[in-house]
Amino acid sequence: MTVRWIRAALAGAAALTLALTGCGGSDDAPAGKKGGGPVTVFAAASLTESFTKLGKDFESAHPGTTVTFSFAGSSALATQITQGAPADVFAAASPATMKTVTDAGDAAGDPVTLVRNQLVIAVPKGNPHGIAGLADLARPGVKVALCAEQVPCGAAAKTALGAAGVQLTPATLEQDVKGALAKVKLGEVDAALVYRTDARAAAGELDAVEFPESAQAINDYPIVVLKHAGNPDGARAFVEYVRSDAGLAVLTAAGFQAPQHQ
After folding, report:
1. Which of 19, 49, 97, 181 could bridge to 92 as Cys pair (CB 3.0-4.6 Å)?
2. SS3 helix, strand, coil % of the chain, rounded to 5?
C-alpha cells in the first residue's frame, strides 16, 4: 500500500509539473509565431495591392491571425485615428500625415520609413495626347486629375509642378490616388499625376510617363504601431513582417523604392 501511494504521489507531481510547463509555453514560443488574433491596419490607398498580398502572406506565416485593412487617403485615415477609430497599425504616404497622429499622442513609439514612392503621369493606352512631360498637362484642351493638396499625392504633385514651373487648373481634385487614377480609366480626364506603383498596378489599362521633376517630390511612407492598439503583439509582428526582406521584396516589385538608411 505504501509503495502504491508513493508511486501515485510521484505521478501526480509529474502531471503537475507538465501542466505548469504547458502554461508557460506561450512565453517560449518563437517570436515569429506570436501575435495571433485580429490585426487592423489603416494604410494609404497606394499600398492597396502590395499590402493586400502581404496581409495574406502574413496570415499564412502566423496561423490564427486575421488582417483587416482600411485603405484611403492618408489624411483621412489620420483624422479617423485621432478621433478614436480602432486600429492597430498606421501606414501613411507622407511624414506630414503621420505627424497628425504622432502629435496627437496616438503612436506607440517612433514611426519608421517603410518605403518611398514618386509620381508619374498616367495616360490612356497609347498616350493619344502625346503627353511627354508636365508642361504638356497645361496645354489647352488637356484635362488633368490631381489629388487634393491635403492628400500626400496632391502635395507631391504641387511640389513637382512648382519645380517644373507649370501652372494648371485641374479638371478634378480627388481625395486619394485611386480616385485620380480612376478618372483616367473612365476616360473622364486625359492624364493624372499618380504614384508609380499605382500606374504599374494598372499597366494593363494605362500607360505611365516618367518626368524628371518627380525626383524632387519623393514621398517617404512611415509606419507605426498605434498606442491604443487592441492587439499590440499582432501589430508589432505585422510591422516587422512588412519591413522584412520578404516584405520589402513584395513592395519593391510593386514599384516602391527601398527606404534610405535609418
Report:
1. 97
2. 45, 20, 30
Q: How far is CA 256 from the centre of its chain?
A: 11
CB burial string 195-213: b at 16+ within 10 A, e below: bbbbbbbbeeebbbbebeb
Distance CA 108, CA 90 (A): 11
Q: What is the CA radius of gyration of the chain?
A: 24
Q: How far apart are CA 72 and CA 147, in angstroms?
A: 12
pLDDT tens-digit map of 174-220 = 999 999 999 999 999 999 999 999 999 999 999 999 999 999 999 99
Its sign, for the CA torsion 31, 32, 33, 35, is positive
Residues with Cβ within 8 Å of residue 36, at least 6 apart in sequence: 62, 63, 64, 65, 234
Gap between the Cα atoms of 40 and 231, Å rounded: 8
3-state secondary structure 112-133: EEEEEECEEEEEECCCCCCCCC
Q: Which helix (H) or strand (E) holds 221?
A: strand 219-225
CA distance 248 to 243: 6
| Pairing, β 191-195 against β 144-147 | parallel
What residues contact residue 132 under an 8 Å CB cut-off, 6+ apart? 209
Amino acid at 114: L
The model's pTM is 0.83
Query: Which residue in 68, 93, 80 sits closest to 176, CA to CA?
Result: 93
Q: Are 101 and 88 in contact (CB under 8 A)?
A: no
Which residues neighbour 236 within 8 Å (Cβ) at sequence distance 6 or greater? 35, 225
Is 193:121 a contact under the CB 8 Å cutoff? yes
* Residue 88: all three cell numbers together: 492597430
